[in-house]
Amino acid sequence: MAVIIKDVEAGSVAERAGITAGSSLISINGNEIIDVLDYRFYQNDKRLKLKVLTENKLKTYRIRKSEYEELGLIFDTYLIDKQRSCKNKCIFCFIDQLPKGMRESLYFKDDDSRLSFLFGNYITLTNITEHEVERIIKLHISPVNISVHTTNPELRCQMMKNRFAGDALKVLYRLADAGIDINCQLVLCPGYNDGDELKRSLTDLTALNSVKSIAAVPVGLTAHRDGLEDIKPFDKQTATDVLNIIDEFSNNTLNTYGKRRVFAADEFYLLANQPIPDVDFYEDFLQLENGVGMWSLFLNEATTATNEDYCDFELKTPRKISVVTGEAAYPLIKNIVDIATEKWHNLYCNVYAAKNKFFGGHITVTGLVTGSDIIAALKGKDIGDELLISASMLRHEKDKFLDDLTLDDVQKELGVKIKITENDGFEFVSALLGNR
To answer: Does residue 89 lie in a domain region?
Structure first.
């Protein structure tokens, strides 16, 4: 297989070697180049032998360069080949619960091992190729992030609606046997993979030394589930039951491995009306992107900022602003704002919780709050001179919400300037004080 070189960066190693656009890269040091991971890993050596097809002639280029210096080849797509879509039809899939009329890219389901390594995405292993498995083991690529959900093969097939889903678990065990670090995700659905099935999954996974962390995450249910499987949301009692199981296995791994490897998402503690553990409980925060320890870390950063970073800061002129957040995070944000307004008496800040009307159902997280939700929550309210929102509400470019409303749309509708803050307690306190 050959990959077409779209362009060559000016002044790069490849250009100096004489490689031209339109040629096809065949191999690097005898290793076939199929995708971005092959290219990125094999280009790192100081001495390279490239096989390149130019005008139907196979040429060999011998290159010397600094270790990790980029070759400078540009391809049609970031991954070099096409991004792989998910082959499953999971009963809990959030994308299947999206309302109609959103931008097309939001309906794409990715399940691509390359994105796991590059961006930390979770994969199901149901469409990973043998070439990729062998490459992971050969190059010892770690960690691999896997959406396991259950280690019961039959139940996994049922929940993912893929007859190969159970068999795909064999890849997990192959990677574990090869010493590849693994992070696991379990999206829990009441009556399916909680209770005794959760105990089975945690027993199987915690027995593997290579599994460094496991996150239990509650299923997210929108109001757009027509024709989908009937799944009940977690309530106080079922969330408490999950936490009891998680605590048992978390303590077991602490005793066995010297570290906790099993964690529950913050949402379980909120549903169970239990206090979220302090920051030390989460150790290396390996599952932060799954909402594990996010609350504790943010609170720790914010309180540190108010007590240390800004202990001598004087707010010389009165500042009147507002913050809008999701319903789940409202108590956390309100707590931090109360600490700040008590410390700085001329800081006036309202905190508003935006009910998620766009997705509906049981969606309360800040990252799924849309522009229309913000407008509905704040229209006619006393906002002040500035509105702070979380960057998690916006797409990567930070210009548009999930409902396609832009920052400008919301600013014009509410008549207020919007400031974006990252999911960082230090920056949030800085933004409260206008000291960005």
So the answer is: no
What pLDDT tens digit does each residue of the chain (436 aa) get? Answer: 678 999 999 999 999 999 999 999 999 999 988 888 889 889 999 999 999 999 889 999 999 999 889 999 999 887 777 777 899 999 999 999 999 888 888 888 888 777 777 778 899 999 999 989 998 999 898 999 999 999 999 999 999 999 999 999 999 999 999 999 999 999 999 999 999 999 999 999 999 999 999 999 999 999 999 999 999 999 999 999 999 999 999 999 999 999 999 999 999 999 999 999 999 999 999 999 999 999 999 999 999 999 988 888 889 899 999 999 999 999 999 999 999 999 999 999 999 999 999 999 999 999 999 999 999 999 999 999 999 999 999 988 888 999 999 999 999 999 999 999 999 999 999 999 998 5
Give the CATH number of the domain where residue 323 resides.
Answer: 3.40.50
Residues composing the chain = 436
> Do 433 and 319 contact (CB within 8 A), yes or no?
yes
Is pTM beyond 0.90 here? Answer: no
Q: Are residues 366 and 340 in the same domain?
A: yes
How far, in Å, CA of 275 to CA of 288, rounded? Answer: 18
Range of the domain at 336: 298-432
Distance CA 188, CA 265 (A): 11
Domain boundary among 291, 315, 349: 291
Task: Compute, in degrees rounded to 10, the torsion defined by CA atoms 389, 393, 396, 397.
Answer: -50
What is the token pair recorded at 223? 């109001």
Structural contact between residues 267 and 366, judged by C-beta atoms closer than 8 angstroms: no
90 domain residue, yes or no: no
**Domain tally, the chain:** 3
Claim to verify: residue 111 and residue 50 sit in the same structural domain = no
